[in-house]
Amino acid sequence: MSNHDEHDDEHQHDHEHEFVDEEVVILEDEDGNEHEFLIAETFEVETRIYAVLVSADGTTEEGFIFRVEEKDVDGEQFLDFIAIEDDAEWTNVERVYNEMLEEDEQE
User: Fold this and answer.
1) What phi and psi values does residue 59 have, to the nearest 5 degrees?
2) CA dist 37 → 22, 25, 54, 97, 105 (Å)
3) Do you know which HAMAP family this protein is assigned to (predicted)?
4) Residue 105 pLDDT more than 60?
């Protein structure tokens, strides 16, 4: 379920999440187990959309960042949460997200 094997993709900070969407996102890990998440926040980096997902049951405060893409299945639009595999993309996304966290802390 990790979205980038070589990097620490968790974010930990003290502000409360205001969930973007109360709809539960179900992701499957590498063992086929399903896990429920809520979208804590979304942000854009170079025309791509990213989402921070947090555990729906509140058992952990860890957040995971995924790239979000729309996909069409039989004429219906769905969101696809894609693990960030590219080092350059991850570095850029992490930088932008950390800048957002710093701005939040200053407010």
Assistant:
1) -75, -15
2) 9, 5, 5, 19, 24
3) UPF0473
4) yes
Closest among 41, 47, 48 to 104, alpha carbons compared: 41
Which burial class, exposed, middle or buried, applies to 37 when counting CB atoms under 10 A from its CB (0-12, 13-18, 19+)? buried
Structurally, how many domains does the chain consist of? Answer: 1
For the beta sheet containing 76-82, the strands, ordered from the edge strand earlier in sequence to the opposite edge, are 21-28, 34-45, 48-55, 63-73, 76-82
Q: Is residue 79 in a domain?
A: yes
Highest mean pLDDT among 75-79, 91-95, 103-107: 91-95
Query: Is residue 4, in this structure, part of any structural domain at all?
Result: no
69/61 Cα distance (integer angstroms): 24
Does residue 40 form part of some domain?
yes
1 located within any domain: no
Give the structural domain span for 38.
Answer: 21-106
Q: What is the pLDDT of residues 77-91, one digit of tens each?
A: 888 999 999 999 999
